[in-house]
């Protein structure tokens, strides 16, 4: 036998009730409806609920429950898909935010490096309004003369810091020697021979020592003032 839907049962039941009413009317002496009556035609084409075996009724009910389960499953799938799409959207937004933060950090670091490089270039360009070779060579130099050289070679905003270091390292004595370590000159270079990179006369020319000392401070610390800050914290530079 074929499966019959619950909707079919409902229609069949309603038709059966109508048909029974019509039969009772005839038995009571009422007029019989013509065969063309829609209700009678429907009743003739329908199966009464009472005529459907109990087994088929159970099958119909099972089909209805299965249909409901399918509807619920479809709804659950749609909700799960919606949740997955929302989670994916949030993850994409989070990834985009993290990527932007990383890009901003990289850009900031790059800008900081560029500024630092520019600063060093500016310091280097201002490092000497007069080069060490522009000073006359003498057999000896007074402290005042050495300081005058330094003022002409060190940028104005860096001179005091440079002077502070020289005060502590040599007291502006360009021939000062540390007997224990061998450091030498105004800035106490160690080993002393490193100052040869600024000039062969590094032992006797304070201008050559100033040139080397300024270059060392700029290269190692960024400026004489930064070198002085390090010296204050460590008592050496």
From TrEMBL:
It holds the Pfam family SLT. Signal peptide: none annotated. It comes from the Bacteria. Residues 76-134 are annotated as: Disordered. Residues 124-134 have a biased composition (Low complexity). Residues 160-225 form the Transglycosylase SLT domain. Residues 78-89, 96-123 have a biased composition (Basic and acidic residues). This is Lytic transglycosylase domain-containing protein. It comes from Streptomyces botrytidirepellens.
